[in-house]
Amino acid sequence: MAHRFFVTAIGTDSGKTVFSAILCEALKADYWKPIQAGLPGDTDSVRTLVSNKKSKFHEEGIKLKTPASPHAAGKKEEVEVSLQRIELPETNNHLIIEGAGGVLVPLNDQENVIDIARRVNAEVIVVSNLYLGSINHTLLTLDWLSQNEIPVRGIVFNGDPNPESQEIILQRSGLEELLHIYTEEKITKKEIKKYAERIREKI
């Protein structure tokens, strides 16, 4: 059975793209970015990091040049941004879907990024980068997902270890840590393969 995972995070630049590449490599999965706001695009970044020949990189659903929330970028560029414009790509393979920013980043005045996960029936994985304040941001994100009955597969931590933060997040959420991505001097295909091996048995 093919998996469909929606990768979100507790904020912007939390490590979603790197983790999406890791997951694509681990599962030899396809990749799809429903909404791209800003250039260069994340699809190109993931493509350069994935080594296997099976993964396909589907065209973004909506492309915006402005590096801002989709609702703001859409207004600036006079582009309609809505769930109705986003069509799931056809594939029989596992599919990794990367969100934009965090769960409540607005698509428009009524819809949010996380609504894409519900629309395509994808299981969510949350990336939490470890910084001062990340406990609150992570638990708020997870609590909102729980209250809205959105299934979460687990948590990925990103950055230098912070055992106290990681332990309390896992304890209070009751979720599994799927992977810890440590601070690397550079992220290359070699690093992606290394982390792919670590997460493969957990997915």
Describe the structure.
- The chain is an alpha/beta fold.
- The chain is 35% helix and 21% strand.
- The protein has helices spanning 16-27, 42-49, 70-77, 114-119, 134-147, 163-173, 189-200, and strands at 4-9, 30-32, 35-37, 62-64, 95-102, 123-129, 152-158, 177-181.
- The longest helix has 14 residues, at 134-147.
Characterize this entry briefly.
The chain has 203 residues and is α/β, with parallel strands linked by helices. The protein has seven helices and eight strands.
Please supply descriptive tags for the structure shown above.
203 residues, single chain, DTB_synth_BioD, 8 strands, 7 helices, magnesium, globular, alpha/beta, Rossmann fold
Helix content: 25-40%
How would you write the strand order of the largest sheet?
2-5-1-6-7-8
Count of all domains: 1
Tally the helices: what do you get? 7
Order of helices and strands: EHEEHEHEHEHEHEH
CATH architecture assignment name = 3-Layer(aba) Sandwich
Q: Low-confidence spans: pLDDT under 50, at least 5 residues?
A: none
CATH superfamily, by name, is: P-loop containing nucleotide triphosphate hydrolases
Report the count of strand segments: 8
Average residue pLDDT: 96
Content of β-strand: 15-25%
Shape: globular
